[in-house]
Hints:
Elements: H1 9-26, H2 31-37, H3 42-70, H4 72-89, H5 98-125, H6 131-159, H7 162-180, H8 199-203, H9 209-236, H10 245-264, H11 267-271, H12 273-292, H13 297-325, H14 331-360, H15 362-400
Amino acid sequence: xxxxxxxxxxxxxxxxxxxxxxxxxxxxxxxxxxxxxxxxxxxxxxxxxxxxxxxxxxxxxxxxxxxxxxxxxxxxxxxxxxxxxxxxxxxxxxxxxxxxxxxxxxxxxxxxxxxxxxxxxxxxxxxxxxxxxxxxxxxxxxxxxxxxxxxxxxxxxxxxxxxxxxxxxxxxxxxxxxxxxxxxxxxxxxxxxxxxxxxxxxxxxxxxxxxxxxxxxxxxxxxxxxxxxxxxxxxxxxxxxxxxxxxxxxxxxxxxxxxxxxxxxxxxxxxxxxxxxxxxxxxxxxxxxxxxxxxxxxxxxxxxxxxxxxxxxxxxxxxxxxxxxxxxxxxxxxxxxxxxxxxxxxxxxxxxxxxxxxxxxxxxxxxxxxxxxxxxxxxxxxxxxxxxxxxxxxxxxxxxx
Length: 401
């Protein structure tokens, strides 16, 4: 039996466009350092990150419906233009005040639009029989920037400053826009008898609710290092080589996830999604525990590998579940909801974890996040098993009547 190819022209172009957009976004893991230099506290940094998530969550219903109604390409074009423009606006931020919140809102809208649009496009072009593997490979376009951006950002900041960092991010976003111009429109045809139900109907879909919970739990937890690792390192450790530990963590994080996806991306499709999902979430929890007692580069490296392994499988598995359980006609809305949960995780996790840091310290915060992901996994496993068993029983009863 001939396996359908994953890597095609449209997949490759979308991958490249997503890669440069991801590189632009990933450079903002250093933004907390910029905000701290302007006088922001950990709680304020969490709030500033959270306001971007508010905008991203708020725009998602419109993005999802636009993707399903108008197609993928108009949304990708608009998202790219907003993204480039918003990054350039960071050059005008000189103090913690209303303007930095406004810039974060605009940036959040651009990122939300592109994140949803690129991953919906990716779902359109990967074959159904290799969906999780296809998502895993497409997701490398987001992981590779994470691995590179920490180091690139550290180097730019060591030799120049935040102005140059923002200009570098804007250049990467502009390259994504140029590549996007070569993409062809792709979306499933609306089948006879099927209607697009809309964003909020997909939110309420019974088979997707447990996935929303699991994705939201993971999103909340990864906020611990995506938002606060920069200030944690600045406050606690500095590598003697001059390259900060942020770069070490995210290089290890991205490299572990990338190697896993390229070499073993087929495992969830062959072995079973849930059999791989639960150990993946456990790996993230273990990485957070290591961060809680880290005393130097070795611990930071191990934590990055553990968290990267968890992300390497966790995100594509849940992506595959979402696309498989949603109707093709609602794919844009379903993917938009899924990606919105990662913004919602920042929205909730930023302020909550920031307050925990302010009151109890980074050690307590990292351990709290570890307990949270384990709890979310347990609740998901119980809820999803009962839901699927109930649906199977209902179908059997209907078939026998």
